[in-house]
Design goal:
103 residues; alpha/beta; 3 helices; flat; Rossmann fold
């Protein structure tokens, strides 16, 4: 039997709950941990507080997961966090549309 080193999986979790306690984030973490365990992966999770801290990840993650959030998205239209989030989303789209980035 050959032993191979576990693959590292970098995951960005974008928390849109604006500091509101919720089960969604707990479930996201739990599902990721179970997936990593059952597939023998090293999991590097980084959480980004999008609404409160206006955080957004770079383009160096393998997987991006964005939670939902409280309230209507129309109530915060044009806020700084939204500009940061959708700016990041546009950067991901541009990256994915660049043929040089396709494997």
């Amino acid at each position: 039997m050959n032993y191979t080193e576990p693959t590292t999986l970098k995951v960005a979790i974008l928390d849109l709950y604006e500091g509101v306690e919720n089960q969604g984030m707990r479930c996201i973490r739990e599902i990721l941990n179970q997936f990593a365990d059952s597939n023998h992966l090293n999991l590097e999770k980084t959480e980004f507080d999008v609404r409160l801290r206006h955080e957004a990840p770079g383009l160096d993650f393998d997987i991006y997961i964005s939670s939902g959030g409280p309230g209507s998205p129309l109530d915060t239209e044009g806020n700084d966090w939204e500009k940061k989030y959708f700016g990041w989303l546009s950067a991901v789209e541009a990256y994915n549309n660049n043929e040089a980035n396709v494997f």
